Amino acid sequence: MYIYDDFDRTLVQERVREFGDQVSRRLSGELTEEEFKPLRLMNGVYLQLHAYMLRIAIPYGTLSSDQMRMLAHVARRYDRNYGHFTTRQNIQFNWIKLKELPDAMADLARAGLHGMQTSGNCVRNVTTDQWAGVAPDEIEDPRIWAELLRQHLTLHPEFSFLPRKFKVALTAAAHDRAAVKIHDIGLRMHRNGAGETGFEVIVGGGLGRTPFIGKTIKPFLPKRDLLSYVEAIMRTYNQYGRRDNIYKARMKILVHELGAEKFAGEVEEEWQSIKDGPLALDPAVVADIAARFRYPQYELLADNPSELARAREDNRFRLWLDNSVTNHKVAGYAIVTLSLKPEGGPPGDATAAQMDTIAELADRYSHGEIRVGHEQNLALPHVAQRDLPTLWRALDGIGVATPNVNLISDIIACPGLDYCSLANARSIPVAEEITRRFRDLDLARNVGPLHINISGCINACGHHHIGHIGILGVEKNGEEYYQVTLGGRADDSAELGTILGPAVPYAEIADVVEDIATAYLELRARPGELFVDTVQRVGVDPFRERVYAAR
Amino acid sequence: MTSPLQQKLKVTGPVVVTANRLGDGAVVYRAADGTWTKDLAVAVVVTTTPAALELLAAATTEKVAVVDAYVAPVELTTQQQVLPGNLRERIRSSGPTVALPGQG
To answer: Beta A62-64 vs A412-413: how paired, if at all?
Structure first.
């Protein structure tokens, strides 16, 4: 966990008081909606179909058990007993009342939680690998650098009124679990030929109406230059980004229109003028931040304890262990993913009761720490392997041990038309129906790792462009239709999916997914060939023929 | 369904004026007496563009009661019952089409 200090606490509390005053002035009519809207957005408050929605940042996806309890409290006291974990390591509450928001925010602030910069044309929550600090394949904990960026970019006066929103993600692992190539700035930590650690800087990625995979403009950036180089990118964007057309205002459009090389040249010129100034990182500052990330006092344990071997005789436990438990960098420990994708349930939602129990289990089995991933699942990052059988029974008891992580029913979805004022079509019932179709875990395991991403509109909050199967809700003559893409991926080989064919009506979309899965089982070269690799090998035509032959 | 706030007004059937209540975001409709009601059955229904514009103009002069007022389609049954005119408005009127977590 990162230990916040008085400066952080004061900043959040001052912001809560300020926002409380703004809400009072809005309710009294002193502020108009036009004046108030940008203020509420800067605090993560949207107006959706039925109510206000509050989005709360979970920086780099790390939550303490106390913070999780506070989220449960807010869900219970101010909302309808649940919250929705998003694809950007945030949580959203869907039924908050404006007049109660200042109290809810004051409660959240007591746990170090806030909604600052979770909306509006500013730098959003900096995201990273949900397994940061514990993943065996990382070269160092990326949260140190995420925290540096968070501190630098929070309430940064120069970047509080950008042309459009701005998203930063970073990874330090061999396998990218943070989808860095679809962010405005993606940072990939790696070692250069001299063995030094630094960042590959990728810019101009993003989904939405005009999707782009990011382009590398700096193969290796030394650590000391992180803030100055990011500052130079943002200044370049702030200067040249379009403010006349909201649909062309994101940095990806600027990078595309200028060309990555010219954009890089502009950044380089700006950077050269500031790189040796105050933003050059002092190793002592980095060390101070690193020291405030506290790690558990791990016991000296061996892998595969006897408790595990005995428990594996239970088939249900073994299925969960093989699916939801991952190697830890410390022997005798494991990372446990909690599936928030129950059969027939909305992806990413957790009830207040589940949150409270997860907090209690985190205290008992994970040194009080919980992680939130962009796939809309949670993780307990420090679990002793000997505790896995007991933990599994507790997680199973609250419905978060469905062994479907990374399988076809582990669906990423936006709230869609059931909640969102921008949506064209529903996402949640589509996801729920697909999970019912693949409730047979033998079938789901036979299909293997397959990511379905569903967005209820072109804004792509469900990241449909990078789903192995992407589903986009559209409207045709007042009816919900769904356009399907195949072969998208968000990992190191990030690619945008290819459109399969004409959109299909709501009643048929789950059938289409079944047809695609069936076609894949027939087309794959061998049982171990992943769906996305089969699509890459054979193209979308065989799938198109299967799906549209009967339609 | 493109947000009605972004659409050009073109009335071709029965419509009402709807908005979200400022204090809690609840969905409300413009009533005949100039107040706002959560009950669609007592909303004012008009059928022409000038009448809808007039109703909307009156609604948007209020700066505190509601937010984002717009004209929404409705259906009138043979018994003159007022129903939401499309899926978006049905969801606004009745809530999500899926069971809420923990309450299903």
So the answer is: unpaired
